[in-house]
From TrEMBL:
It is found in: Cell inner membrane. Its main location: membrane. InterPro entries: 2C_sensor_his_kinase, HAMP_dom, HATPase_C_sf, HATPase_dom, His_kinase_dom, HisK_dim/P_dom, HisK_dim/P_sf, Sig_transdc_His_kin-like_C. It is a multi-pass membrane protein. This is histidine kinase. Residues 267-465 form the Histidine kinase domain. GO terms for cellular component: plasma membrane. It comes from Terrimicrobium sacchariphilum. It holds the Pfam family HAMP. The chain crosses the membrane at residues 187-206. It is an enzyme of class 2 (transferase).
Length: 469
């Protein structure tokens, strides 16, 4: 199972929620330990104050009225009683519990105390703590005051000896449910709301980034395949805007660069015609007949190269728009043309295959390759095959093939292998370079290899991409 999400939105939400969870755990930890500790200190001081007041009160009234006076200052959480002897801490706690479970006279019959503690088994846990002595003078008492820390009861016990030797005892204990836990329904509600707000915020941020990024991806993909791409709107956060703007600038520069190159190629091949023509006129003055013919053959070759370059440059400069064509029909019409001119071509195709491309360019590329097979390899076996992730077109022939060492070189402009130079086929060596340029422009690739008999040319095109539809 993968936990780490793939998308930016998913990752952002997960990271924010993790951060939230960690901060909540830390907060609860602080609440549980630090705040509870602080509260206990405060409550302890408060109880101490009450114990001291009760002591003064008990001292101030005659011994026979003490019990009834002390009764009047009891609260549901506080009890006072008098004893004569020193008793053990455990004994004292049992007595304290009995007093706590007895209703106070002050609160009348619907006294909540008994039920408050009856529900709680906490009072059954006796503390092993022993009495701590607070020396006299600290709280304006002349006599020492004894404190019992009853953490299990959330309370404190106090013991003070009155002037006549009697002990005044006080117990304070807080039922557990009054010790508000941090994990209240209110807390959960707040947590759910916070989670929703965080997730919403993450979604909002991610959307602002993802939306323009998606457009950028689509445009880059299209640009790479030679489709015309419009200038993207700069949207989203500053960083993303900068990226989009850089992409737009790159696209403009790339287009300008390409047009400049093609224009230059066209100008050179065009301007070469004049010197070639003037050279041709001058061959008339060559006396040696054989020499003149050789000169003319070379000039023919030069002229052929210039014409081919010019026609390539011209076709490149008229930016052809992309449209959907049937690849099967396209191949069939190329094969028919070549058959009519006397070539031997055989096409195997699975049938209709609509494909978005620059159809005129693609036709030119495919025609160059099939013509090569017929010219140099006697026949062409063309197959069209559709894979899930690409489209394959293979062209095989029965010729001599191309030695592995020359398979990259033949793609260079004006490169013709020695064997074909003798053949007088009329080519100038631009066919494969043009074909590769066009196929790469469609985001595809062309590779040469040894086939069953002759050369095998494999043209791989990217599949019909829904992004480009
Ligand atoms: N099917 C093939 N079999 C053998 N050699 C080939 C084949 N296709 C191309 N070649 C070699 O590659 C060279 C370059 O091909 P290309 O660029 O089409 O130029 P051109 O056909 O004008 O000579 C050809 O001159 C030829 O020597
Ligand atoms: Mg050729």
């Amino acid at each position: 199972m993968r936990i780490w999400p793939r998308t930016l939105t998913g990752q952002l939400i997960l990271v924010l929620l993790l951060a939230l969870a960690i901060s909540q755990i830390v907060t609860l930890f602080i609440y549980r330990f630090e705040r509870a500790r602080a509260l206990r200190v405060v409550i302890g001081e408060e109880c101490l104050g009450r114990a001291v007041s009760a002591f003064r009160l008990a001292e101030g009234v005659p011994p026979n009225q003490r019990k009834s006076v002390l009764k009047t200052i009891e609260t549901p959480l506080t009890r006072y009683w008098l004893t004569h002897d020193e008793i053990s801490s455990e004994e004292w706690q049992r007595e304290a519990r009995d007093h706590l479970l007895k209703p106070t006279s002050a609160a009348g019959s619907n006294n909540p105390t008994a039920s408050m503690f009856a529900r709680e088994t906490m009072l059954n846990q006796l503390s092993t703590a022993s009495w701590r002595e607070l020396p006299g003078g600290t709280w304006l008492l002349q006599k020492p005051l004894h404190i019992l820390d009853l953490a299990a009861w959330n309370g404190f016990g106090f013991k003070m000896q009155l002037n006549d030797g009697e002990y005044l005892n006080m117990i304070y204990a807080k039922p557990e449910y009054l010790m508000q836990s941090a994990l209240t329904p209110g807390y959960y509600t707040a947590l759910v709301i916070t989670v929703l707000i965080f997730a919403g915020a993450a979604l909002l941020i991610a959307r602002r980034i993802v939306r323009p990024l998606r457009h950028l991806t689509k445009s880059a993909e299209r640009l790479g395949r030679g489709h015309e791409v419009e200038i993207l709107r700069e949207e989203g956060p500053e960083d993303i805007r900068a990226t989009i703007s850089a992409f737009n600038r790159m696209q403009v520069r790339l287009n300008r660069f390409l047009t400049d190159r093609t224009r230059m190629l066209a100008a050179i091949s065009h301007d070469l015609r004049t010197p070639i023509t003037s050279l041709r006129l001058r061959t008339e003055f060559i006396a040696d007949e054989e020499m003149r013919q050789k000169f003319n053959a070379t000039l023919d070759e030069m002229q052929g190269m210039a014409e081919a370059s010019l026609s390539f440059a011209k076709s490149e400069s008229t930016a052809e728009t992309t449209r959907v064509v049937d690849l099967d029909a396209l191949l069939e019409s190329i094969c028919d043309d070549i058959t009519e001119l006397g070539g031997k071509v055989d096409l195997t195709s699975p049938g209709r295959l609509p494909y978005k491309c620059r159809s005129d360019s693609l036709r030119r590329a495919l025609r160059n390759i099939i013509e090569n097979a017929v010219r140099y390899g006697e026949c062409a076996r063309v197959t069209l095959h559709r894979h899930s992730d690409r489209i394959d077109i293979t062209v095989e022939d029965d010729g001599p093939g191309i030695p592995a060492a020359d398979r990259e070189r033949v793609f260079e402009p004006f490169v013709r292998l020695e064997s074909s130079r003798n053949r007088d086929t009329g080519g100038v060596g631009l066919g494969l370079s043009i074909a590769r340029s066009i196929i790469r422009n469609h985001g595809g690739e062309i590779t040469l290899s040894q086939g069953n008999k002759g050369l095998r040319v494999l043209i791989q095109l990217p599949p019909v991409c829904p992004n480009l539809a």
